[in-house]
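Subgroup meeting minutes
Present: P.N., E.W., G.H.
Scribe: E.W.

1. P.N. recapped why we're keeping a running log of single-chain structure predictions: easier to compare across weeks, and new members can see raw inputs and outputs side by side.
2. G.H. added today's entry (70 aa).
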Amino acid sequence: MARWFVVTRGSALPIVTLGFTVGEARLPVAFVAAMAAMAVMDWHLLWLVAAMICMSGVPCLDAPFNARIL
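Output recorded in log:
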């Protein structure tokens, strides 16, 4: 990672580390929510809902890059 961002290495590494930490923190919460949802809906529908939640986050990933252009 540090070899890819030579000039902005100081900001690239903390962002990557923060993303990893946030992912680890959200996994248990998502697991408990999925187990609670299994009581209400079928596992096929649960996978569909999980995919829709993941896809809804994709525009948020591109937002910081578009803000610099404007």
